Amino acid sequence: MKKLKTKKVTYTNPIFNNMTQEEITDYQEKLLKKQLKYVYRNSEFYRAKFKEIGIHPDEIRTLEDYYKLPVFLNKTIEREIQQQSIDKYDHPFGLHLCTSPDDIAFTGTTSGTSGNPTFTYTFTEEDLNFLNRYIAHMLDYGGINAGERLLFSHALGIYATSSILFGVRSHGVLPIDVDVRAGSQMILKYAQMTKPTAAMMTSSLTEHLIDKAPELIGMNVGDLGLQAIFTVGEIGIGIPEVKKKIEDAYGCRVYDYLGELGFSCDSDEYHGIHCVAPDLSLFPNDLIDPETKKPIEIYNGVIGELIITELNLKALPRIRYSSGDIVQVFTSECPGCGFKGKRIKFIGRSDDMLIIKGANVYPSAIKKVVSNFIPEVSGELRIVLDTPPPRVVPPLQVKIEYGADFDTHKLPELEARIKNELHTQVRVTPNIIWCPTGSLGKALTKTPIFEKNY
After folding, report:
1. Do 28 and 100 reside in the same domain of the chain?
2. Are residues 166 and 136 in the same domain?
3. Are 314 and 99 within 8 A, CB to CB?
4. Are residue 330 and residue 399 in the same domain, yes or no?
5. Are 224 and 241 contained in the same domain?
6. Whole-prediction pTM value?
7. Cα 264 → chain centroid
8. Which residues contact 3 (CB under 8 A, 6 or more apart)?
9. Is residue 444 predicted with pLDDT exceeding 90?
10. Which CATH number covers residue 127?
């Protein structure tokens, strides 16, 4: 890939580009006060929640006041109030709905792999128009212009990523949407036929197609002519070896993004998702300790569980919503592009956290260490669990694929080096189970990190 000067990321709303962080905070406080009054007036659930804790929205004068409030919502509570709205009002959107169901223009649910699906991503037309500009801003940053085509390969239908399509179209870009359930050959065939300049997919699928393209369509992915790839939903390109592999194979830049909240910059090194939407959400200023649930002060490098509060959405805004995502927040200027706002890197999910000899261990940390040994290993691994997490009786069992060209006689020496790095960096010394390259497989959607034998 030709090396170009890194383009600076800017806020989606240009008014923030000339504001200090203090001025941005003041702006967000005004939006928050307005939004809290709105949800109090219009949502049965939020009104009851404020009364339960004995606080009226008028009493919340600063962001610090707000961060002291208990968590209002999480996936479990969301499922409960969805069922209550079905029973009481014959709609599935939950008692936290702030508009009439008649005003809903789009709903995109979670996949429901860990329970009943939630209708978290439910928007009015006004909401969609507001969100579209964030996706358009990201595409513009990636050099994707009106009149071009974009391969959109996610599990569509009911799933949340479908809302992104509105933003793609609003930018004048035609999405070529291929459900991943159609399989690798069909995805590649559509790419061959339609000649898109960009693609949106998971990093797992992006990697998977590198190996499959020569076999299925007789060409390398680099011959597809993509100029940018946008990945979502996985640690993925936060691992340097994965980022380099994808960019070298496709011959273009790969960007990490988190819906409308932000995206990574055009840098050879990964410096996290740049938070470009202070008028959309308080993200990432509201963190709690994943165990105590107490608020955490924001400073450069802090790690905590992300609490989401949406400041401008009307249908189903999330207010003090415990996301379950563990992130690291950076407040320093981006060393890659010079963006002065906050950035985040994903550490893992709170429900993926393992406790081994009293230490908290995140699977993503194990994966990052193992990926440093590519090409001696393939980068694929599975953490084997014989009992339900989070507590694990040591030693932790980890299956790791050795590299395709690796001399298996050298596995004991490689194993010793990997164990030493895991002990030093992650505070865990696992039992490694070696597997041939390709035996663990790679999913078209999200590649699982656990092998659950319980």
Report:
1. yes
2. yes
3. yes
4. no
5. yes
6. 0.89
7. 12
8. 268
9. no
10. 3.40.50.12780
Spatial separation of the C-alpha atoms in residues 208 and 183, rounded to whole Å: 11
Write the DSSP symbol of residue 393. P
pLDDT in tens, 40-91: 999 999 999 999 999 999 999 999 999 999 999 999 999 999 999 999 999 9
Distance separating alpha carbons of residues 313 and 125, to the nearest angstrom: 10
One domain, residues 239 and 380: no
Last residue of a domain, one of 282, 317, 349: 349
Angle between helices 44-53 and 21-42 (to 10 degrees): 110
- CATH of residue 377's domain is 3.30.300.30
Report how many domains make up the chain. Answer: 2
With H, G, I as helix, E, B as strand and everything else as coil, classify residue 304: strand
**Do 344 and 271 touch, CB atoms closer than 8 A?**
no
- 405: how many CB neighbours lie within 10 A of its CB? 8
Task: Please tell me whether residues 336 and 410 are part of one structural domain.
Answer: no
Condensed to tens digits (0 to 9), the pLDDT of residues 283-322 reads 999 999 988 889 999 999 999 999 999 999 999 999 999 9
Query: 287 in the Ramachandran plot: left (φ > 0), alpha (ψ -120 to 50) or beta?
Result: beta
CA angle 426, 431, 434 (to 5 degrees): 110
pLDDT at 108: 84
111: pLDDT strictly greater than 80: no
Of 74 and 155, the structure prediction assigns the larger pLDDT to 74
Mean pLDDT, residues 128-157: 92
Last residue of a domain, one of 332, 349, 366: 349
Q: Which domain holds residue 218?
A: 1-349
Average pLDDT on 21-45 reads 97
Report the percentage of the chain scoring pLDDT > 70.
96
**Residue found by looking up tokens 């959107």 in the block:** 93
- Residue 88 sits in the same domain as residue 115: yes
**What's the token pair of residue 159?**
């799933």
Q: Is the dihedral of CA 210, 213, 214, 219 positive or negative?
A: negative
